[in-house]
Structure formats: structure tokens, C-alpha cells
Input
Amino acid sequence: MRGFVLILVALWAVSVGAQQTPYRGEFISYDIRGEADAGTMAGSKYYRELKFEQGSALVEIPALWLDRDIYVRDPNYSGRFSLAVNGEKADFEASVTHLLKEGDNLITLEGDGVSKGFFVWSQPRIHIHDWVVSGHYDEYVRDNVVDLEVVVVNGFNMPEKVTLGYDIYDPTGALKDYFAVEAEIPGRGADTIRFYNKVMGTQRFQYTSKNPALYRGVMTLRHNGRVEEYVPFRMGFGVAALWGPEALPKAVYITESQPKSVYDKYEREGTLIVDQAAIEGLPPNDPAMVSEVVDRQAVMFYRNRNRANVVGWSLGTPIGNGYNMYKAYQWMKRADSLRPVIYRGADGQWNTDDR
Output
């Protein structure tokens, strides 16, 4: 059994260019394979760091970028800032191409916090929007499998054909699996493509805190016969064995959102973490604000759901308990039924798994 591929239409509801927050992981795409293999964000020509002074930053946008989807990212996903591009209100992680021009552009922030690590990045009009990956044992094939779902977004008006593929390497650098499939993505829409392939020899490299064995992968998206982007990813095999209440005492609780580099370091070192949403300042029991509280959970979850060392989720630092925290707990349990969900402000009530 080599594997199989499923194309799932509109598994994610993606509105291309809409002014909303599309939840997804934190990554950068590349147009050169060597840069993708290196995996440093600053190594991509489609990345620009923003340096703010008194809430404002100038960023130069090349003409080449204006035919792409351009985004502004808050590296800490704190929800503490509002964004404007050239004087027009904008949303993080929604395309702001229509607000930009060639040359210098003004990015402004309003909010409470340290405005470090923000950046602008761009992707082709047809691109990889997000993915979810796991490595687990399959009784049918009697071995571990790569289970990879990739959301591809088409920003063009007409359906477009693409070729999506990946290759994956074990911790020694040996190629362990590769696959590619053709798909047609609807105009102004998205499809989800699923790969489910047997990978031999993974028992040697199971991810644990003592042996944090990470596999390196690269997804490749081709359109009209050329590579549009390379997107690197990491994954661990056997990580579900870590997901349980018994792992919580060994885990580090992230007390506030951290830059990607910190999460990367923890994952490489095998430091188990419970990731925590940034809900400071939000009310625990005001139904009018429930969508904001749940939004913070979704941002956290989609950002780090693929990390091998995340053994649980925390709804946030204790702010009291009530309707909003009940709904936040229910959302997280629907999103991830395997990993425990913790809320230290539950005060003995049902909306925490460490009771």
C-alpha cells in the first residue's frame, strides 16, 4: 500500500481577501528550495520585518509583491493591537494587497504591548493556506503513516489546476517518503487535499521528551508548470502517546504568547508545553464578548496544533469563570478531543481536564 490522496472540497470555509482573521499556522513560503530547507523566515525574499517607532513603521513593497497576497502578522497573536495600512483599517492575516502601493508604505499599530517581531509577508495568488499533519500507527498497514491535510487557496476568478506534493526526511536526513497529486482548485475558493501514506522505519525515531526526533518535510505547489512556492514543515511520530493528563506535571505552561523562535527551540529540545491563549483583559462572563474569547482559543490552536511537543491547551491565565470560559472550553474540546484542555480559573467546575 503506497498510500492514497483525498480531495475534500471546502473542508475549511476560506473567503479569499475577506476582512477577517483566517486562522492558520505560522509559516513563510519560499520560491527557492534551498531557502525552504534552511527554514529561516528572514531567508525568504517574501518576508519583511517591521520596525516600529511610536506605533508606526515604513515598509518598502516591491512591484513584484503587488501581484501576490500580502499579509501583516502579529508574532505573539496577542489580540492587543489594531492595524492600519496607509491609513486604512486592516486585519491581521487578511490580505492587504489592495491597500498597498509600490515603494514605501505606512503600517500603524494601536494597542497595549510591545510591538516587536511584527512582519509583512506575501504568497502567490494560488497558495498553501494551512495544513494539519500527524504521524501515527495504522493497524491496517501495520506501520506508521504520514497523515497530511493541506488547504490550497485560489485567488483567481477561474478554476486553476495545480500539482501539490511533499517529501519528508528522517532526523538523519534520509528521504523517507514523497508523493504528488494534481487537483483543480475552484475560482475564489479552496480545496483540502489529504495524503495518507505508510512510512517505514519510523520506530527508530519516535518523538519523546528524551529523544525529540523531528522529521523535516517540504511541500511543493506547482501551477502552470512552475513552482509557485515551497513550504517547510516539521513533524513527529508517536506524539499522541504524550497527550494525556500524566504529561501535564512535566510540561511548561506558556504564560503568554511567544515568538515562533521560542516555540521552535522548545520543540527541538523536547520541552513539553501547554500552550496558553492570550485572554488578559477579557471578561469571563459577558456573552457579548464570547466570540472574542473563543477567537483567542482558535488563534492559539491553529498556530501550534502541529507541534510535536504541545501536550495540552490552556484557556488562558485565570480571569474568573463563567459563560465565556465554558464556551471556550467546549470549542477547544471540539477542535482537539485528544489533548487535555486546562483552565486554572475553573474553581472546581467542569471546564478543565485537571480536576
